[in-house]
Structure formats: structure tokens, C-alpha cells
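Trying the structure run again after the queue cleared.
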Amino acid sequence: VYMLIPLLIANAVVNAYMGARGIGININTLPVVTVGVGFGIDYGLYIVSRMIEEYHAGVSLTEAVRLAVATSGKSVSFTALTMIMSTLFWTFSHIRFNAEMGILLALWMGISFLTTMTLLPVMVVVLKPRFILRERPA
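Done. C-alpha cells:
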């Protein structure tokens, strides 16, 4: 659930964009949606996995979140920015569908990245999820 909330926000933004641009949800846009969701979940998994590792090592939850964003966040940022920038090159395509899907996918990955790097750590610190807190050895 913690990783789905940033994804739902990205989904809402992308659906609003699709509605504003008149892009329908059909069999052609489904692969873009799938890739966008996949990257969003991956970003969250990397960050949360690192939070659990740091918390397991004995630091406070707040410090574990800070360290996770500082370490794993760098690789997530690099991956996201690389993927977003390379996908934006599709916008130069003379094939309208490719250009629209390039923007759509870049938007989805960008919003997923931003919500994962900002909202997810805040949710973990504020809500203190049991799936992380039970990871500390006795």
C-alpha cells in the first residue's frame, strides 16, 4: 500500500494529461501504462529495501530513511533521469503516436520518481509501518 499511493498519484496525473490531450485508454496505450507502473514500483522497492537494511543495522527509523534516500536515492535518481531523458527523444518522432507515447511515458516515470522520492519517505517516517519496524533484530 505504501508504494501504491505514489503510484496512484502518478496515475491520476497521467490520466488527467491523457484526458486533456484526448489520448484514449486502449490496447495501444496499455504497454506504456504497464512500463510506467513497473518503473514506479521499482523505484519504491529500491528505496524501501534500503530503508529496511539501514533500520536492521540499528539506526533510528528517521535516520534509516535519510540514509536510504541518500544512498539508494542516488541510483534511483540516475536511473529515472536517464530513462526520462532518453524517452523524451521519442517526442521528436514524426510518427504522432510515438511522440505522444514518449511524452506520456516520460511523464509517468517522472511523476512516479518524484512521488517515490518525496512522498514515500514522508509516509514511512510519519506512519511508521510495521513491515519495516519488525525488521530490527531482538
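The longest helix spans residues 96-127. Worth checking whether this holds up in the mutant runs.
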